[in-house]
Every structure is written in structure tokens, then in C-alpha cells.
Amino acid sequence: MVTLPPKSDQKILLELNGVKKYFPIKGGILKRVQGHVKAVEDVSLQLYEGESLGVVGESGCGKSTLGRAILGLEELTEGKVRYKNEEIQDLKRKEKLKFVKEMQMIFQDPFASLNPRQRIGHALEEVFTMHTNMSAKEKRKSVIDLLDEVGLKEEHFEKYPHEFSGGQRQRIGIARAIALNPSFIICDEAVSALDVSVQAQVLKLLKSLQEKYKLSYLFISHDLGVVRYFCDRVLVMYLGNTVELGTVQGLFANPIHPYTQALLSAIPRPTVQKNLKRIRLQGDLPNPANPPSGCPFHTRCPIAQDMCKVDKPAWQEIEPGHFAACHFAGTKI
Amino acid sequence: MTNAVLIDVQAPVRKKKEKVYITTIKRLLKNKLAVVGIIIILLQIGMAIFAPAIANYDPAKQSLVESELPMFSDGHWLGTDNYGRDVWSRIVHGARISLLVGFTAVSLGLIGGITLGLLGGYYKKLDGIIMRIVDLLFSFPGILLAMLIIAILGTSLVNVAIAISIWSIPSCARIVRGSVLSIKEKEYIMALKSLGASDLRIMLRHILPNAMAPIIVFATMRMGTAILSTASLSYLGLGAQPPTPEWGAMIAQGQDYMWTSPHLTIVPGIVIMLVVFAFNVVGDGLRDALDPNMDIQ
Q1: Cross-chain residue pair B5–A151, CB shorter than 8 Å
Q2: Which residues of A touch B14 (CB under 8 A)?
Q3: Would B124 be classed as within a structural domain?
Q4: CA A232, CA A248: separation in Å to the nearest integer?
Q5: Average pLDDT for residues B40-56, to the nearest whole number?
Q6: CATH number of the structural domain spanning residue A210
Q7: Is the CB of residue B12 less than 8 Å away from at least one CB of chain A?
Q8: pLDDT value of position B21
């Protein structure tokens, strides 16, 4: 695995600028908006061509919403998404079709993401029906090629989703995502629902496809081990905010933000040493409808000071290519 | 790399499972009441198709010499009415009318109801308006609404079918809307959107096939209701006009002779009851067979 540190000469594929996604909370008789769940709060980042960017964080931190917002499945509250230097957040469906071919998504639950009443061959053919003018014969051939590409066989063409194993279904999900030769794929917890042994196979498949087609991945996961194996860079999110971004080597070796440090210390290690300190965070994840003032992490941060309750820390480059949002960046806990 | 990728493909493709509709039919046939219902419906369909062959008399042919023959008379096993028309032949031909009107009414009602339900369930903005229209239609008692529509359109069997179909639209729309609301949140719909599928494609090719189970049950039960309503409206003189051999109209004509020739009202009455009963039990059986957890009023 060659991991390229993000250099300025690498081509930027996707750029997020101040992306926000708030979900309104409606209540009362008149269904008035009473507040907002701040699912994604001011995310800015760049994704380079051919890299895998991992997005980690606990449940409810806005990872999946971020992925959907990039694809336009959720309307942005604010912010800009630029893909290959074109703003795509406000496009109409017709104009967006061009980008649909380039940006695809692989979903967490491969069973739920396939229509249970549709043969998988037809599900894959449908992708070509929507975007190309292929004849029925060409479509069938393309689908069989696709099945072959993800390690399935022609005889699977006429099967229904329930006739497959979990790993096979996720291969179908992958086949559907790569059908139109995209350059960017969002993997939303793509391997979380699979057995560990099958996870490895699917990850290998994703890797080989990346090499073959020069794909970029936004790899959303809560499994730090998988991210460490699979990704080039990692973005850590907490309560809709980005807290740290760095290369896999840099971030895992030297976590700057206290939240990242706590996350990393929670990875189970096969060791009998007793002196391994595990950082235990106190309290629960705050309500994203009513996030804490100042730094969103201050309610649970072991090194929080008074200023953390008031000032929101800026997103700054602490080391080259290593960003974090913390007033006391680099303090070890 | 390629070798590693191919590992779990060695696992055999799982054994072919039975198709959904075969399991449904098997489960349906275990339900004895439903089987009785199916037999009655098949008999009615058979009667409707082969009516000219089964009926030994022209249903409209009068023969005043043979009027008001009782049941089991020579040549007229169900007797004759006050004009000497053969009751059996009229019942057989009546099967055609009630099936045809029922089927037309339910089909039209389904088309309207599915359209409204899909639009209302899928587009949040349309939901409010469509559901208020549906509520409005719901607020009229069924038969009254049908009578109102017939009063506007005029009395004929075609208008009866239209009236019953309009009356079927609101319940169908509600059932479809409910299913659409739950199906559209499924992940495969999200996946299709991410692939750039149009709303029309999602609604017709993906949501509708998955919402079919409650619609099938509704359609079956509504067939029974539609046949009953056709008979009711014809009984009231709003539907079939003489000499059409419609079951409801037959009861209406026969009631004047109820004391002398009770079979003129009892026979069509029993036939209507059996057919409505059959459609209801088959609908019930289908509901259980399709999905025991499905909820439908």
C-alpha cells in the first residue's frame, strides 16, 4: 500500500466549504420549527484524486449525513460542495445526472439497499437503462462483466437479493456503484455489517478496484482498525464538527485532539500489559439539537479549561497536513 | 490480489427459494374457508364466461304461460318470474354483469387510488391537499355518494361502475399512501436516488411492486363490496334497467311477489350473499397468506 501524504501538487477532486446540515425539529399544533438538530456543523475539507479519506466518529456524529450531503441526497443548509471545480450543491436533477455518474455510494446494509423484488441482474441493468442508450444485449453483457469484476458469476444474474450471502450482496452493491465508471465513491459503513473474514475480502476488492480505476473513496466507518488499514487520511468527527484530520500514520502515531486520543485508546489491543492507559470519557454525547457552547467537546474533555466553554477552537494546521480544532492541541492526556 | 478477491465465491449459490407468489398460494390453500371462497368465485367466473351455454333460456325471453313457476318445475329448476323468464338463466347472465361492473369499478378505483396514494405518499407537498380531498370523499356515506354521482351522471350500469370506483378511491389512496410512506424510507430507495433514478421510476418500478400486497387484499375485498353495491343500486332502480338480468334488480322485481313466489327474491339474494362472502373470505385469506403482520382496515 502506497500512502501519499497530501501534497499541494495533488489534484483536488472534491472540496467542501463550510458545509452545514441542520434538520428542523417541528412541533406544536402548527408544526412550527422549534429548533434544529445540527447534524453537520461547518465542515471544510479537500479530497484528493486517488486517495481514501476515512471519516470516523461515534454514532450520531454526522458521518453518514455528511456523505449523503455530498451526494446531494440531503439538501445542504449552508456551504458549498465543489467537484472537479464545479459547484454541485444547487444543481437540478437533470444537471446533476452528469455528476451522478462520477459520484457513487455503497451502503451499510447490502440487503436493505437492494430492492427485494428485483433480480440483481435487472437491478444492475437498470443503472445502464438510466444513464446510457445500450441495447438489451449490451446491457446484459455489461452486467455480466460487472459481476465478473466483483467476483460473482453469470449464474447470479437471475437471483433475488435474499438468495445471496452478506458478502455477495455487498459485492452487488459495489458492482452497482462502479457500473458507471465513477471516480469517487462514498462507502457509508460499507463493511460494518459483514463478518470479519468477509470484511477483509470486500476491503481487498475495494482496494483492487481503486488501483484499477483510480478511484477516490470517502470511507465512513466507526471501525478504526479498518480505517487504519484502508485509508490514506482520516477525519475525526464529533457532534457534527470536524475535530482532527491527518494522514493515517500521523494521526494514529500522534493524535493531537483529546477526543482522538480517547478514541484511539479505546481500540482493543492484543496485549497483557497492564500499564496501557485507557482514557474513559465521562458522560454521554450531548444532544445535537442543543450543542454545548464553545468547543463542542468541552463537556467530556479531560483537559478542558474555562475558555473552552466560551470560545470555539479554530480549525488550524498544527503540523503539515495535520489539522485539529483544539485550544490545547497536542496536550497528551 | 485477484485470487484473494474470489474466495467467497467458491461458496455455492444458495438453494433456490420458492417464489413469493407460490408460497402465498400454498399458504392460501391451507385456509379452508378461503378455498371455499375461491371455488365460489371460480364458479361465478365460469358462469359468466359460459353463460350462453349454461343458461338454457334467453334471460329476457318472456313466456306468460309459464309465469311464476315454483322451483324445481319441469325445465325451470329455479322456477320462473312473473313474466315467465327462467330464473336460472337470469342468475347465470347476472353473474356476467356483476363481475363486469365489479371488476371495472375496482380497476378504476385502483387506478385513481394508487395514483393519489403514490403522489401523496411520495411528495410531502402534495400530501396535505390529496389527503384532504380523500377525507372529503370519506365523509360521505358510500351509498349516498354513489347515489349523488348517479344523480349527476344518470342511471346506467356504466355510471354505477364509475360511482363505485369513485367511492373506492379514498380507501385505496389511504392504503397505498401508508405503504409508500414506509417504503420510501427504505435504503434501496435512497440507493436508487444516489444512482440518479427519476421519481417516476422509483414510484412505479420500485415502490409500487413492494406495496402490492395490501393492494391485492384491498382489491379482492373491494370486489365483494362493489358487487354488493351494484346490486344495491340496481335494487334502488339506479343501476341496471329492465330487462337486464341484474341480481339486485331481480330482487326489486321479485319483491312484489314475495308471498306467492318467494324464490324470486331468495335465489338472487342467496347468490349475492355467497359471492360477497366468497370475495371477503378470499381477501381475508390473502391477507394472512401474504403477510401475517400486514395491517389493513
Answers
A1: yes
A2: 163-165
A3: yes
A4: 6
A5: 90
A6: 3.40.50.300
A7: no
A8: 73
The per-residue pLDDT for A172 is 92
Q: Give the pLDDT of residue B200.
A: 92
Determine the length of chain A: 333
Residue A110 confidence (pLDDT): 84
- The crossing angle, in degrees rounded to 10, of helices B32-49 and B20-30 is 100
Tens digits of per-residue pLDDT, B134-190?
A: 999 888 888 888 888 899 998 888 999 999 999 999 999 999 999 999 999 888 998
**Predicted pLDDT of residue B12:** 46
Q: How many CB atoms are located within 10 Å of the residue B18 CB?
A: 9
How far is B288 from A102, CA to CA, in rounded Å?
45
Is A77 exposed, middle or buried, given 0-12, 13-18 or 19+ CB atoms closer than 10 A?
A: middle
- Does B115 score more than 90 pLDDT? yes
Alpha-carbon distance A258 to B232, whole Å?
A: 77
Work out how many domains chain B is built from and give that number: 1
Range of the domain at A107: 45-67+97-231
Sequential DSSP letters for B114-125? HHHHHHHHH-HH
Q: Find the domain containing B269 and state its range.
A: 43-52+63-290
In a domain, A87, yes or no: no
Q: Which residues of A touch B191 (CB under 8 A)?
A: 105, 107, 113-114, 173, 176
Q: What is the mean pLDDT of residues B99-124?
A: 94
Determine whether the interchain pair A115/B190 forms a contact, defined as Cβ–Cβ distance below 8 Å. no
Query: Considering only CB atoms, which chain B residues are within 8 Å of A115?
Result: 188, 192, 206, 209-210
Q: Which residues of B touch A101 (CB under 8 A)?
A: 196
pLDDT tens, residue by residue, B205-230: 999 988 888 899 999 999 999 999 99
Angle at the Cα of A279 from the Cα atoms of A307 and A255, rounded to 5 degrees: 70
Q: Which of A109, A115, A218 to mutate to test the interface with B (most CBs of B within 10 A)?
A: A115
List of chain A residues with pLDDT < 70? 1-9, 272-276
Written as one letter, the residue type at A256 is I
Closest CA to A296 of B72, A137, A288: A288
**Which residues, in sequence order, are bridge partners of residue A233?**
A53, A247
Residue A315 lies in a domain: no
Contact of B201 with chain A, judged by CB distance below 8 Å, is answered with: yes
Distance between first and last Cα of chain B: 56
Buried b (16+ CB within 10 A) or exposed e, A188-197: bbbbebbeee
Q: What is the pLDDT of residues A294-307, one digit of tens each?
A: 888 888 888 888 88
**Residue at grid coordinates 474466495:** B7
Count of the separate structural domains present in chain A: 1
Q: Flag whether B36 is in a domain.
A: no
Domain of B83, CATH number, reads: 1.10.3720.10
B144: Cα within 13 Å, side-chain hemisphere = 5
- CA distances for B178 relative to A108, B165, B211, B274, angstroms: 26, 20, 9, 31
Q: Does B194 touch chain A (CB under 8 A)?
A: yes
Per-chain mean pLDDT for chain A: 86
Chain B residues touching residue A165 (CB < 8 angstroms): 8, 11, 14
Phi then psi dihedrals of residue A82, to 5 deg: -115, 125
Establish if B30 belongs to a structural domain: no
Question: What pLDDT, in 10s, does the model give residues A11-53?
Answer: 888 988 888 888 888 877 777 888 888 888 888 888 998 899 9
| A104 within some domain | yes
